[in-house]
Amino acid sequence: KNQVEQSPQSLIILEGKNCTLQCNYTVSPFNNLRWYKQDTGKGPISLTIMTFSENTKSNGRYIATLDADTKQSSLHITAAQLSDSASYICVVSALCSPGT
Questions:
Q1: What is the domain-level CATH number for residue 69?
Q2: What was the pLDDT predicted at 87?
Q3: Inside any domain, residue 65
Q4: How many whole angstroms separate alpha carbon 28 and alpha carbon 1?
Q5: How far from 3 is each of 9, 30, 44, 49, 72, CA to CA, in Å?
Q6: In 3-state terms, what secondary structure has residue 52?
Q7: Residue 73 sits in which domain range?
Q8: Could you tell me if residue 100 is inside a domain?
Q9: Domain count within the chain
Q10: Stated pTM of the model
């Protein structure tokens, strides 16, 4: 069964501090993992796309890590700002088998 779980469900941090969001998944076969930021009332914005062979990707103050062996990803936000207040979404895509 393919599942994706994020933690923590919610987080309150002080401005200027760092924080980390976790994503665990059981999706197999794995294609890619994406982190999105969604501001209230707006559509999601892609922060990063990671494939099986990529361990770390950065996008400004956002650093995403991926461990394909343990099926875990983290999103690190450095020096948090008020504008970082949003929903963060981890999306995992599976490879399609031929004929599906």
A1: 2.60.40.10
A2: 96
A3: yes
A4: 9
A5: 16, 12, 20, 18, 12
A6: coil
A7: 4-8+17-94
A8: no
A9: 1
A10: 0.90
